Batch of 2 targets.
Target 1
Amino acid sequence: MHTITIKAGREKLLLKHHPWVFSGAIDRVDGNRGEGDFAKVLSADGDFIAYGYYDEKSHIVLHLLSWDEGTQADESLVRSLVRKSVLRRARLLGEKGTTALRLIHGEADFLPGIAADCYGREIRIIASSRFADRFLPQIAAELDALLHPAIIESSVDKAYASSEGLPDRIRTFRDGKETAGDLSRPSVRFIEDGILYEAAPGKGQKSGFYCDQRDNRRIVEEYAEGRTVLDLFSYTGPFTLHALRGGALSVDAVDSSESALRHLLYQIHINEDEGVIAKGSRDRVTITDADCFEHIRTVESGKYDLMILDPPKLARTKGSLDNAMKAYKDLNRVAMTKIRNGGIIATFSCSAAMTRESFRMMLSWAAADAHAEVQLLRTLSAGEDHPVRLSFPESEYLKGAILRIIRS
Ligand code: SAH
């Protein structure tokens, strides 16, 4: 175990339970330098602050894990953090009609760089830190002991693979033990809010599905009856499926991923076959493989009265926020000018770098430039399986709004 002393005056954030410590705040490291290991973190006066994990090859060299001095800082801590994270979701795990949810939400669940999602009988993990990569076997073993999934598959978040020096590979675990990669297994079927989905092994964006939008899909469905819908950035179609179930007249789904759009059609068929949505729903849907920022400019004004705007993360860092704000604003502005008078826009941003305040400001700029009055009907966020930890504001990333657009 390392012993790490923090520079005088640099301990404030640590004492507020923010989990990230950069090298500039560290005065001294006693222990085997070069090796990732647990660390006891002390103030300049030698007082205990927290236990963490130190790895100088990581872009965040020290991740704090526990502020309880009585904690045993070793592999058992990792397993106990996994267990607590899963147990906090007992209510959601018992919910009928939903078998897809996030089990571990990174630092918000005290587990740095680990996202774990459950899809029916499978668990998919995304590792974005050296800590996650190192303790994958322990994490998988604990998840297996708790939930007995058929398989656990882990991949590396490509955005962090090079900065963390992680090999970009898929690892699989069965019965809690690592096994040779098995990507020939059939797709897993799972349910979210009564709607059926499938995810192919090793494929898809993120871990194959965006379960953070569960509550918001349910809300959008409430607005769908009798509407002509445009689902921009549809991916594999969860909003489209909800709009169909909610009684939309038609849905035009647009995404730049052709394979996602094909999968969208497949998922409509599954849900028709199982009686979740009406037979013939497919005939009310079109798919378009296009850049949504361009496509929105070409749509006929007044055609749609419900639009969903769910773009990918446009601001990767605080530094790219200015440009991202312009892109978000432009997208929303054009949507506000094109939508039928009185229509509804469900709009989202999943950029953590953009605060809720800047999201709201961006929408008001877009409204002003679209010469529209806009009513904010609902403020949206990720589901409770993606908690926001108040001592770690970076965990708030998904912001959304249901807007009514009024043009005199
Ligand atoms: N609404 C989806 C999630 C959207 S994720 C859901 O509920 O599951 C963002 C999507 O935007 C991805 O499917 C990605 O393929 C797509 N995308 C990224 N850039 C795009 C662009 N410029 N034009 C169209 N689609 C884009």
Target 2
Amino acid sequence: MDMISGLRDAAAATHRSMHPELVAAFSLEGRTAVVTGAGSGIGRATAIAYAQAGAHVVVADLHAVALTETATLVEATGATATVLPTDVSDKAQVDDLARGAVRATGRIDVWANVAGVIRNSPLLDLTEADLDAVLAVNLKGAIWGCAAAGRIMKSTKRGSIVNVASTGGEMPAPTLVAYATSKAGVIQLSRVVAAELGPFGIRCNTVAPGFVDTPMTQRSWVGADGAFDETKRTAAVDVRRAQSPLAVIGQPADIAYAMLYLAADASKFMTGEVLRPNGGVFMA
Ligand code: NAP
């Protein structure tokens, strides 16, 4: 055996698994993480990633049955879950969610504002109902989440809040006036919260995903007859792939790993920042 292969074998023998220091940096062991929008897509994947990292996960969404399914997936990782159906656009319900999380485990270490809705409409046709619906969930919901989390985290002098924006929050596109402005607001929300709550040991960052294959995006490929239009999907996905230097679209787990990084101590030097898992379609 030559010297190089000898050294390589010795290194392999001592580093068969991830180094404990790295494990600790990404671990949420002993922590409680609240995830909104956890009944579907990116929220569900985030809840699972937090569970895989060892957290007790408090899952919140409008849909109780979907939350129970998420809780089953969380528990399959060996972690524990608390299910709390919540409408994030209602401040009182978000405050109840925080109280429920504290009742379950006595603490909140991580709060992920993932719940969101989209309405596509040209500016000139935008209805007040659509604008209100988008702002109520995407912006107001995230603000109430930050406030509820901040109130608890301030008392323990530590915590990480992760808000979900979108490429649309920074890159203009037609028909997205309600959605894109709400997500631009989320990016600035994280910065203000980071500035205001940083002195209490609380971090606040944004994940701004590109196009991800989730029920939210799949809904746009349902035809007028209610049937899923595979041709429409393929065409839309091809367009998105063409925008990426990697020729990819995102999967929920791609975003969940960014959510985990910002939740964990691995990112303890980051606050007020935007992390952009988007396949390279937009580089700021
Ligand atoms: P999704 O599959 O539709 O999941 C979002 C979940 O949030 C759904 O269960 C939704 O319920 C729920 N929700 C809606 N309004 C709520 C409310 N008032 N209170 C509590 N929960 C509520 O969407 P997703 O694609 O995973 O998106 C998750 C987040 O990522 C959103 O903030 C979205 O804007 C953002 N994002 C997504 C993409 C993408 O390409 N998918 C890209 C960039 C950013 P309903 O099904 O009833 O609406």
